[in-house]
Amino acid sequence: MNQVKIDTLHENIKQELGADGRFAGVEAEPNETEPQEPYDPEKISIEPKVVPMDTLIRRLQQGSIRLAPAFQRKVIWDLKRKGQLIESLMLKIPLPMFYVAADEKGHWDVVDGLQRLTTIKEFILGNDYMETRDKKYKGQGLELKFLEFWGEKYDGATFNKLPDSLINRILETEFRFTIINPGTPEEVKRNIFKRINTGGMPLAPQEIRHALYQGQSTKLLADLVEIQIFQTATAQSVDDSRMAARELILRFLAFSVRHYENYPKTSDMDQFLSDTMRLINIMPELPKRELEKIFNNSPMPPIRFNDINILKRRFIKGMRRAYKLFQQHTFRKSFGKNRRSPINKTLFEVWGNLLADLDSDGFQYLIENKDDFLHEYHNLLEDSNFVNAISRNSLTHHAVQSRYKKLKKIVDKYATEGIKKC
Question: How far is CA 26 from CA 113, 198, 328, in A?
Fold first, then answer.
């Protein structure tokens, strides 16, 4: 395939978008198929609820509303938006619906309404009070700015500087919440949040997972996305404002924790990745009761690694080795002197794991045979069946098995001492 044809092909690659609407540097995959089995309506529990301000404040003080600051997109509200939200409460203007998922302990994880709740907490309680719990700081938090109607009267005012009439009006506010109760199938929760629009940009699948599965998994992803070798291997080209980088890393982890042969025959990548986050959250013990919840009492697939530190080391090893082999084209369909294409999720996940699986001798042989290895790999990148397995059909069970087996065959061939040169 000549260079002009390859460059044209790469120009036609669709990319995911960041929070600002610009390309995120990651190749977009086809939409996943709808669930093949209908949901059991008896298990779905979604409750509209009116929540008074005093209940909201109590929960914010308890920490039983988890605001998950790591979930916030990088576009954080400025003082103008915060001030106008509080002014809406002062004017008794109803706020849009809040969406939360409740766990078995009664905690609420917020997906939609995070900035509004954060602003209310900063104004009525104040960050100093939340940190110290010293009552002298209560109500001395956010100062009102950029008010449209009451700017002359209350510019710079904190909550406890408002007149009693406005304080009462704010404290008597009632909010509309949609609460997804425990026991509702995980795929139903994710489906609901897919429909929520945040700041004009729909929630990305990884943003939804991040909100629903807070714990060791979200911390691990936050740690790994900052590691220098990840930034180097991806040429710092991935915009993580909608968590595109964290989803890449989760793809690697998913196929580390479970073998590619255990990828679901339903071809449900969303479920596969979500289950991986839930598994990481209960590592290393993996209690049987929790596993039964994740796999719905189905036979549990073998877990290859249940130690988070081992997963970290595997990730770093996979990134270092991939960059050493592929340099500027690491995890991309492009190669040689061709224009660099966006990161491809499937190549990230496959190469990260195959190279991490190699022992030191095997990788050294691969480096020694690098030229012949790359020649054969580049030929594969021009094979239409393989290209479909890493793009158009990438989420299907057949494509997952096919790409792993084809790339593993090449790796095994050149990661061997004394092979015959082509």
Answer: 27, 21, 15
Distances from the Cα of 124 to the Cα of 74, 83, 89, 161, 361, angstroms: 24, 12, 12, 11, 61
Domain positions in the chain: 3-35+190-414, 45-183
State both tokens at 284: 């290393």
Which residues have a Cβ under 8 Å from the Cβ of 367 and sit 6 or more positions away?
324, 325
* 277, 218 contact by CB (below 8 A): yes
For tokens 């700017």, name the residue: 151
Q: Angle at CA 419, nearest 5°, toward 415 and 422?
A: 105
Residue 8 phi/psi, 5-degree rounding, is -65, -40
State residue 61's pLDDT score.
95
What distance in Å separates the CA atoms of residue 296 and residue 299, rounded to the nearest whole number? 9
Does the N-terminal peptide bond of residue 284 adopt cis geometry, omega within 30 degrees of 0?
Answer: yes
Give residue 34's identity as a one-letter amino acid code: E
pTM score over 0.85 = no
Exposed/middle/buried for 420, CB within 10 Å: 0-12, 13-18, 19+? exposed
What gap in Å lies between CA 346 and CA 13, rounded to an integer? 14
pLDDT tens digits along 120-147 = 999 999 999 999 999 989 999 999 999 9
- Whole-angstrom Cα distance, residue 276 to residue 356? 18
pLDDT of residue 32: 55
Q: How far apart are CA 329 and CA 326, in angstroms?
A: 5
What Å distances lie between residue 99 and 86, 208, 239, CA to CA?
19, 12, 26
198 pLDDT higher than 70: no
Cβ 75 vs Cβ 20: under 8 Å = yes
